[in-house]
Structures are given as structure tokens and as C-alpha cells.
Design brief:
It is a multi-pass membrane protein. Its main location: membrane. Belongs to the FNT transporter (TC 1.A.16) family. There is one protein chain. With about 250 residues, this protein is mostly helical. The chain has one domain: Glycerol uptake facilitator protein (Up-down Bundle), CATH 1.20.1080.10. It has helices at about 5-20, 25-50, 55-65, 65-75, 80-90, 100-125, 130-135, 140-145, 150-175, 180-195, 200-215, 220-250. The longest helix has about 30 residues, at about 220-250.
């Protein structure tokens, strides 16, 4: 049975509340898992765009990336970009304090980075995936596209990215069927990847891999994550979370 839009805000806010009630250690572990899941989706995307030729290569690769968010939603994990919406909804519905909101966002962001960094090191370096991408020139091309953007472009790209990601999560929340959840989130997430929009957690994996390969510096990684993360907050919390909260909050 699907959930009506009028009830969806309360359900999503309740999910946000429960995320803040999880212990710090469990939140950290679930955040690390989310970083790994998103990184695995990015690996699938990179594998396609670096090894398949043709006019639809980017679209095919983009259609595989939602694997990461599917694992987050169905298997269960805490992802910063998704928490931008649902934890913010818990805040504006006065179920949690601003301190609880900030603490959750900060811990989840850190945990996502740890998981992404470990995946970039163990899978990227341990299995030679990063070096194969470097040899094809694809890794350098994609990373340069991310870090060469202006600060304003990074923020705007992050805004539109998380509008699409959070719409995917919002749609997935409207169904109790895991199969339906997968289908509902697939298109918005595929679109953001295909458009080349910037997702802070995906960038955590990409720029960590670039760090090991010598493509980008630590400062470039930090600047990108801060600015894209800010854009993700605006898009997920204030645009999607704020507008739906204004419309549906009882």
C-alpha cells in the first residue's frame, strides 16, 4: 500500500527523528557503510565510462550508480545527503533540537568520508582499480571537472544534485515495497549522475581515489567537499525538506 503525500512528511520526519536517536557508535558505523555503498555505485559508473565506447556510455553508467542509494535505503545506512532532508524535517516539526540536527549531520558526514576513504584505499589501490582508471585518462578527466568548477558552481551543482537525490528518497518513502522503492529512486538519481551534478559523498570516494593517484590535493578535496556539502544542505534541507514541510506539516 502506498503512502499519501499528506502523510509522507510525518513518516519522513519520524525517520529523521529515529536517526538522531541512534547511538553515536551505531550512527558512525551506519555512516561508514553508506560511504562504502555510494562508492560501490560510483565504481560501477566509472567501470562503464572508462571501458565502454558509444553515445550512451554516460547514460548506461549513470543508470548503475543508484545501486549505492538502493543499498542505503533498503539495507539501511545513514547518508549525509539523505539526512539533509529527513533529519531537517524532524527539526522543523520540532521533534529534535538544532544541536541534535548539527551533531547528526557532522557525524554522518565524517562517517561517510571514512567509509569512502577506506573503499578508495582497499578497492581502488588494493585491486589496482584506481591505476587502471588513471591509465585510461578517465579518472583525471572526471576529477578535473569536479575541482576546476568555481566555488559558486560547486554550490549550485550540489543544490540541484541533492534536490534530485532527496526527491528519490522522498519517492522511495512513499512505498512499503522494496521493489517499488528501488524503481522510484532510480530515475532521479540516474538523472543527477548523467547531468554531472556534484554529490558530496560520491566526491568523497572519487577525490580520495584521486588523492592516492596524485590527481588532486588534500586542499582541493576539502574545498570541494565543503562547498558541495553546503549545496547539498541547501537543496536537500531548505528546498525539498523546507518546501514539503511548509505544504504538508500538520
Amino acid at each position: 500500500m502506498d503512502i499519501l503525500a499528506g502523510d509522507l512528511f510525518a513518516l519522513t520526519a519520524d525517520k529523521g527523528l529515529k536517526k538522531t536517536q541512534t547511538s553515536l557508535w551505531h550512527t558512525f558505523l551506519l555512516s561508514c557503510l553508506a560511504g562504502i555503498y555510494i562508492g560501490l555505485g560510483y565504481i560501477a559508473y566509472l567501470k562503464v565510462v572508462s571501458s565502454v565506447d558509444g553515445p550512451y556510455t554516460s547514460l548506461i553508467g549513470a543508470s548503475l550508480f543508484p545501486l549505492g542509494l538502493t543499498l542505503v535505503i533498503v539495507a539501511g545506512a545513514q547518508l549525509f545527503t539523505g539526512n539533509c532532508m529527513d533529519v531537517f524535517m524532524a527539526y522543523i516539526s520540532k521533534q529534535i533540537s538544532l544541536k541534535a540536527l548539527i551533531k547528526n549531520w557532522a557525524l554522518v558526514f565524517f562517517g561517510n568520508f571514512v567509509g569512502s576513504f577506506l573503499l578508495a584505499f582497499i578497492y581502488g589501490e588494493g585491486l589496482g582499480f584506481t591505476q587502471s582508471l588513471l591509465a585510461s585518462g578517465e579518472l583525471e578527466t572526471i576529477i578535473n571537472g569536479k575541482i576546476s568548477a568555481t566555488p559558486l558552481q560547486m554550490i549550485i551543482s550540489g543544490i540541484f544534485c541533492n534536490i534530485l537525490v532527496c526527491l528519490g528518497v522522498w519517492l522511495a518513502n512513499s512505498s512499503k515495497s522494496n521493489g517499488h522503492k528501488m524503481l522510484l529512486l532510480w530515475m532521479p538519481v540516474t538523472i543527477f549522475v548523467y547531468l554531472g551534478l556534484q554529490h558530496s559523498v560520491a566526491n568523497m570516494f572519487l577525490l580520495s581515489a584521486g588523492l592516492f593517484a596524485g590527481v588532486n590535493s588534500i586542499s582541493e578535496l576539502v574545498i570541494n567537499l565543503v562547498l558541495v556539502g553546503l549545496g547539498n544542505i541547501i537543496g536537500g534541507a531548505f528546498v525539498v525538506g523546507g518546501i514539503y514541510g511548509q505544504v504538508y506539516q500538520k
